[in-house]
Each structure stands twice: as structure tokens, then as C-alpha cells.
Write a structure and sequence with these properties.
This protein is 78% helix and 0% strand. By secondary structure, the chain is an all-alpha fold. It has one domain: Four Helix Bundle (Hemerythrin (Met), subunit A) (Up-down Bundle), CATH 1.20.120.
Length: 216
């Protein structure tokens, strides 16, 4: 399969996982709202337990793959991270979402499921997550605003085929490992992303300095 096809497959994976991330955020909003709005202890506990399970088993995986493929597409194509405002805005929103999702929302969900005591901030967080992803989808389609002051004059080269092959393979490996371990573990995705970023950095300094293995 050609490099173009692998790049298209990476983009397809990014879009599918982003839509899935949005759908799971909406599901969390519905479940946490149900827990807040019911006086039935059994229903409240079930809603919170299901919300926690969805977050760990599906939302976290989809968020990781969506973010990873988006970062790879920025780092491995002419778009870059800092050349266009719409890409930079998406990048910043994604980083904030990942941080808050991992260190705030996930922990709060586990605690709420354990105690059976829902918090209004869980519903607010899920709603904000869904709204942010929907906004990013609009930004991706409309591509508003001009180029950033750091755009430069040259055009960044597109990475070779092997980069996009790894971009598709890494989520499969991480999903398999995460399923076996019982929790998300984006180890292969992080390794691939670091490799792509190092390659782009070396290529930016001087194409002749890029090792042959990374140019192939």
C-alpha cells in the first residue's frame, strides 16, 4: 500500500476515534446527569459504575488514539504544529483535555463510583469535554484564521510511509496491551510519537543529518 494510502488511513483513524471520543463524552454526560437527578440509590450507583467503566474501557482508549494520530498528522505532514492557528488551537485544546481527563475527571469518576455520591462537576466536565471536541471538529472543517507568525516561508515535507504505518499499528498494539492489563497504556503510541518528533526536528536542522534509517 502506498504512503498516501497509509496517510489517509491514519487520518481516517483520527476522525473515527475523535467521533468515538465525542460520543463517549456525551454518554458520560447522560450517565452523570442521571446519577445527579435520581433519588434511587441503586440507579445512581449503577449509572456511576457504568460511567467509570466507559471512561476506562473505551473513552480513554479513543482519546489516546485520537490525540496520538492528530499529533502524528501534524508532525509528519506539511501542516506542522505551529504554522496554522487552527492546528495550534486544536493542539492546545487536546493537551488540556488529556491532562484534565487523566488527572481530574477519571479520578473523580472512580471516587464517585466507589462512594455512590455524584458531583455536579462530573456532568460539567463531561459536557465541556463534548463541547471542546465538537468545536475542534468545526475547526478542522472550517480551518479558520490565518497562518501564525511562526509559519515561515518553506513547506514542511511529508514523512515517509513507515511513519504512517507505525501510526496505525501503534494503537492496535496499545489496545491489545490495555485490554490484557485492564487499563489504558499508550506506550507504543508515545514511542512512535517521540520518534516522529525527533525525526522532524533533525530534518528541520539539516536533511543531511537525519540518519539513513529515519530517512527511508
Amino acid at each position: 500500500m502506498s504512503g498516501k494510502r497509509w496517510r489517509q488511513l491514519t487520518l481516517w483513524l483520527h476522525v473515527v476515534c475523535s467521533v468515538g471520543w465525542l460520543s463517549q463524552a456525551l454518554a458520560l454526560l447522560v450517565l452523570t446527569s442521571l446519577a445527579l437527578g435520581t433519588a434511587d440509590v441503586a440507579v445512581r450507583g449503577s449509572a456511576l459504575t457504568m460511567a467509570k467503566h466507559l471512561d476506562m474501557a473505551l473513552l480513554a482508549e479513543l482519546a489516546n488514539v485520537s490525540a496520538f494520530t492528530g499529533f502524528v498528522l501534524a508532525a509528519a505532514t506539511a501542516w506542522g504544529f505551529f504554522r496554522h492557528w487552527w492546528v495550534l488551537v486544536k493542539f492546545v485544546i487536546t493537551v488540556v483535555q488529556l491532562y484534565l481527563g487523566i488527572f481530574a475527571l477519571a479520578g473523580a469518576l472512580r471516587e464517585a463510583a466507589r462512594t455512590g455520591a455524584p458531583s455536579v462537576w462530573l456532568a460539567v466536565g463531561a459536557g465541556l469535554m463534548a463541547a471542546a471536541i465538537a468545536f475542534q471538529a468545526w475547526v478542522s472543517v472550517a480551518k479558520p484564521w490565518a497562518k501564525t507568525p511562526w509559519a515561515g516561508t518553506g513547506k514542511l515535507p511529508t514523512a515517509p510511509r513507515w511513519v504512517f504505518v507505525l501510526a496505525v499499528a501503534a494503537p492496535v498494539l496499545d489496545l491489545t496491551a490495555g485490554t490484557a492489563l485492564g487499563y489504558p497504556l499508550p506506550a507504543a503510541e508515545v514511542l512512535v510519537l517521540v520518534t516522529v518528533l525527533v525525526r522532524r526536528s533533525l530534518a528541520k536542522d539539516s536533511p543531511r543529518k537525519v540518519p539513513a534509517a529515519l530517512r527511508a
